[in-house]
Amino acid sequence: MAVKQKSESHENLYASTSKFRFRQAQSLFDSHVGSDGVAQIIFSLLVTFCSSLSSFGFVVRFLAFWTHQKAFSKAPEGVSLHILAGVMFLIDISFQFGRLSVLLVIISWACAFDVLQKNLEDHLEKSKYRSHVQRFSFQMVFHRIAEILRNLSKIVQEEESISGRAFCIANEIFTTEKTFVKSLQVIKEVYADPMENILSYDDSFMTKNSWKTIFQNFPAILKLHEKILEDMEEVLKKGKIKGKEDLGKFLYSKYNAEIVEFYTLYMNSYDRKTKELENLQTSEKFSSFLASQISNSKGDGRPLDALLIRPIQRLPSVLLLLKDFHRELQKQDSKYSSTVETSYEQMKLILERLNKEKGIDEGRQKLLNLATRVENFPQGIVSAERILLESASITVEQDISIDRSRLSKGKSSITFHLMSDMIILTKTKTKSVGLKRSKIDTELFVGLIKKENISQIFQVNSNLNIGIYFSENDRPNQLFYFSVLGSRDRLVEKLKNYENYKIYDEFTPKSPYRARSKSFDRAGLVRRSFDFQKKINLEI
C-alpha cells in the first residue's frame, strides 16, 4: 500500500512537473515566438528565398536573420533593424511589387513590425521615456512624408529676388507714385480743403455744387493711391523685392477693380471740372484765391488746373513703366516676366476701356498706343491736350543731329510722327532676347522737335523731299531734310496746316557738317599734320 501511494505521488509529481515545463515552454514560445515570432520567422524565410543571389542580396539575408535574433531577444533596436531590412529588400528586388512572393514579404513585414512596435511599447511602459514615445502609424508616416514634400517644394520654388535694372524700374514706379500722391495731397491741402471751408462763409464766391463738380471722386483716388504707396514702401523698407507677393505690390493688379471704378467717374467728369473752373475764374475773388494758393509753400507754384489733369496722366505713365519692367525681366529670363506682362496687358485694357467711355478721339488713342509701343518714350509727352495727327516712314537725306541723336543720310528705319504741337522721331531696331537669343523688332525713341522751335517747313517738287528748319539749344537754322516712303499725301496735307509751309521747285541742301578726312578724327578734333608738328619742334 505504501509502495502504491509512493508511485502515485511520483506520478503526480511527474505530471505536475511536465505541466509546469509545458507551460514554461508555451510561455517562452508565446513571448519569443508566438504570433509575432511566427511573422518574423516567415519574413526572414521569405527574404532568404526571394532575395537576389548578388552580394547585396546576401547582405539583406544576413540583416533579416540579425533582425530576427534581435526581435527574439526583444532588443529595442529590433524595430530599426526591421525597417532597414525591409527597405534594403525592396532595393534588392528593384521595387517589383507585382510578384506574389514580394507581396507576401511586405505583408509579413507589416505584421512583424506591428508586433515589434507593441513589444517596444511594453518595454518602454515602465521607462521614464514613455512620454516621449509616439506609437507608429501609417497616418503618421503620410503626415511626415507630406511635411517633407512641402519643405522640398519650398526649396525648389525658392522665391526669386528682383535685381539689376529691373529693381531700378520698380524703384522708379515707387518714386513716381510718391510724386503723384504728393500732387494729390497738394490738391487736397492747398485747394480742396480751403475751398470747402469757404463754403461756410456768407459771402462765399462758390457753391457746394461747384466744389463737388471740381473735386468729384478725387478723395477716393487719393485714398487708393495712398494705399498703393504704403504697400510699396512696406516692401522697399526691407531693401529688396523678393517673391510674387512683394512684386504684386508694384503692379497695380490688386487694385484693378477700384482703378476702373474711380477713374471712370473722374475721367468722365473731367471736362465738367475744367469748364466749372473756367466759369469760377471770371470771379475776381476766386481768381485772387487761386493766386494766393499758388504762392503757398505747399503748392510749389502749381495751379489747380495743372494738378487736376495729373490723375489722367498717371495711368499712361504707369503703363509705360510696366512695359519697361516686363522687357527688363524678359532679358533676365526671370520667372516673374509673365506676371508683369499680365499686369501690363490688364492695365492696357483698363486704359482702352477708360478712353472709350470718356470718348477720347482717335488722335489721343494713337498717341497712347505709340507711348506704350516705343521704348524709352518720355512720359511727359502723354497728355490729354496732345494728339497724334499722322505717322510715316521716312529716309534721312542729310546728316543731322536731333535731340542729341545723330541721324545719318540714307537711314531708312526712321518713323516720323506728327503731333499737334511737336514732331517725334522713332527708329526700329532688332534685338536678341532671352537665352535662345530670339530676334524681335523694337521701336526706340530718337528725339523730338517742338512746334515752337520750327521756323519753316517746305517741300521740293523736283524730288518730293521735305525740309524742316528748326532751332535747337544754341544752334539756329538746323535743317532736317528727308523723303517720305510710300504715300506722302496725308502727311503733306497735315504739314501744310502746321507752320509757315512753302513749296520749292528745286532745292540743294548745304550740309552743316564738314566731311571727314585724314586731318579729322571721329570726335571732330583737328589733327596736327607732320609738317605742323615739325615746325613747332623747330621753333622750340
What structural class results from the helix and strand content? alpha+beta
Low-confidence stretches: 28-36, 128-136, 513-540
Strands side by side in the biggest sheet = 3-9-8-7-4-12-11-10-13
Coarse morphology? elongated
Q: Average pLDDT, to the nearest integer?
A: 75
Radius of gyration: 44 Å
The proportion of strand residues reads: 5-15%
Biggest sheet architecture: 9 strands, mixed
Task: Provide key terms for this protein.
alpha+beta; Dbl Homology Domain, Chain A; 4 domains; nine-stranded mixed sheet; two-stranded antiparallel sheet; 13 strands; membrane; FYVE_RhoGEF_PH; DBL_dom_sf; DH domain-containing protein; transmembrane
Written account of the structure:
With 540 residues, this protein is an alpha+beta fold. The protein is built from 19 helices and 13 strands. It has helices spanning 2-32, 34-50, 55-72, 78-92, 100-125, 138-156, 164-198, 208-214, 218-236, 243-248, 256-268, 270-280, 284-294, 304-308, 310-331, 337-358, 362-373, 489-496, 530-539, and strands spanning 161-162, 241-242, 374-375, 388-396, 400-402, 405-407, 414-419, 422-433, 438-450, 454-460, 466-472, 475-484, 501-504. The N and C termini lie far apart (161 Å). The protein has a nine-stranded mixed β-sheet with strand order 3-9-8-7-4-12-11-10-13. A two-stranded antiparallel ribbon has the order 1-2. Strands 5-6 form a two-stranded antiparallel ribbon. The longest helix has 35 residues, at 164-198. It has four domains: 1-28; 33-156, no CATH class; 161-360, Dbl homology (DH) domain (Dbl Homology Domain, Chain A); 388-504, Pleckstrin-homology domain (PH domain)/Phosphotyrosine-binding domain (PTB) (PH-domain like). InterPro entries: DBL_dom_sf, DH_dom, FYVE_RhoGEF_PH. Residues 165-357 form the DH domain. This is DH domain-containing protein. GO terms for molecular function: guanyl-nucleotide exchange factor activity. It holds the Pfam family RhoGEF.
